[in-house]
Amino acid sequence: MRTICRLVGVAVVCFAAGCTGEAGSTGGGDSTTPKTDSSGPTDPYAPCTDEAKCCSGANLVCVGDPEKGTTSCKCGGLWDCSQNPKKCQQDIPTPGGGTWDCTWTEQAYTCVGKPADSTPPGGTGWTCSQAPTGTWTCTKSYPPNPTNSPNGAGVWQCAVEKEFGKIVCERDKPPPPPPPKTETNCADGIDNDGDGLVDCKDQPDCPVCPPPPCPTGTECCDGLDNDGDKKIDEGNVCGTFPEGTPCPVGAYQSCDCYCGVHRRCLADGTWGPCKVDGSCKLAAITTHSQCLATQYCDFGKCTSGFKGGQCVHHNDCPSPMVCDLGMCITDHYVPCP
Q1: Bond into 66 cis (ω within 30)
Q2: How far apart are CA 333 and CA 116, in angstroms?
Q3: How many other CB atoms sit within 10 Å of the CB of residue 164?
């Protein structure tokens, strides 16, 4: 076995794949995850309590004089569960050697100091940087748990007991269940399935969000006579909807442009067929683009006559007016059932 030593003050700090301790010799493994006997059941959340199985040589920090046989080693990944197999503890880690001023929480450790050697000794897992003054700052930013692997984070509940210099972890509940694959409550304001969408915005898990309240005295795209003028959704308030977007059930929309042709939103949130205003027959012509360049669409037919050139599309006119045969007029259509 090869031992690497550094002089730290009056002591020698040693790093080794194996380390001769005060009570005998232990060998360092090459894994930091728990191992169990293959002949028995495997507990994926078992704590690491056996140094030979759970502590890699890189995690050992040995202090003392190897020539006098007084070297002692500690494994930063080893847990003491001797009093209760479901309650384990370990010493709060430090980078090792020298004097350190440390702050510990359940999520991260930060230590600042000037080690006696040129670089901070200690086990792996620390991220260190040195300031021009020679001061080192070292951090470990992962939550502790006795399994020494990420899958134990939800099983072991840990707390830092600074006054005793210990991290104490308890295993008092089973691992948390996986999140549901669909939204389980569409009115609790919570993203139940963890997909970034909440309640009615989570489609198709929940019903479509209702439209916001319609301001008093205005017409809104909802299939209702909001402004009380005995017309429904006039002025092309429904405009156009992106492909695949559900429409408000019962609402009316002009078919592309003002041809005296409208369609109604069906119960499944899709637009029904285009019908001619008044006669309610299925419309063969629904847009000006189906007519010649000198023609306009009017009540489902192409006509050669037009009144002016104020507009071509509805958005050429101020709301709530619409474009009819090149003129901006008040919408006068009669919706079909």
Answers
A1: no
A2: 90
A3: 11
Threshold 0.70, pTM exceeds: no
The pLDDT of residue 151: 73
Query: The dihedral of CA 160, 162, 163, 165: what is its sign?
Result: positive
One DSSP character per residue, 37-85 reads -TTS---TT-----HHHH-BGGGEEEEE-TTTT--EEEETT--EEEEET
Instruction: Record the tokens describing residue 107, joined without a space.
Output: 């999520």
Contacts for 242 with CB less than 8 Å, ≥ 6 apart:
none
In angstroms, the CA 317 to CA 308 distance is: 13
| Dihedral sign (CA 329, 331, 334, 337) | positive
> How far, in Å, are 57, 188, 198, 256 from residue 120 at the CA level?
17, 51, 48, 73
Specify whether the CB–CB gap between 78 and 52 falls below 8 A. no
Structure tokens at 322: 């619409």
β-bridge mates for residue 296, sequence order: 303
CA distance 60 to 74: 6
Phi, psi of 201, deg, nearest 5: -80, -10
3-state secondary structure at position 309: coil
Q: How far apart are CA 129 and CA 112, in angstroms?
A: 10
pLDDT confidence of residue 308: 64
Beta bridge partners of 144: none
pLDDT score, position 16: 36
Cα 28 from chain centre: 39
Please state, in angstroms and rounded to a whole number, the distance separating the CA atoms of residues 91 and 123. 13
Instruction: Supply the DSSP symbol for 163.
Output: G
Peptide bond into 204 cis (omega under 30): yes
Residue owning tokens 């090459």: 30
DSSP 3-state assignment of 152? helix
Instruction: Single out the residue of 17, 89, 13, 9 nearest to residue 58, CA to CA.
Output: 17
For residue 206, what are the contacts with CB-CB under 8 A and spacing of at least 6?
183, 186, 199, 200
Q: Report pLDDT digits (tens) over 32-72.
A: 344 433 333 577 788 888 877 776 655 565 655 556 666 66
Instruction: Give the chain's residues under pLDDT 50.
Output: 1-40
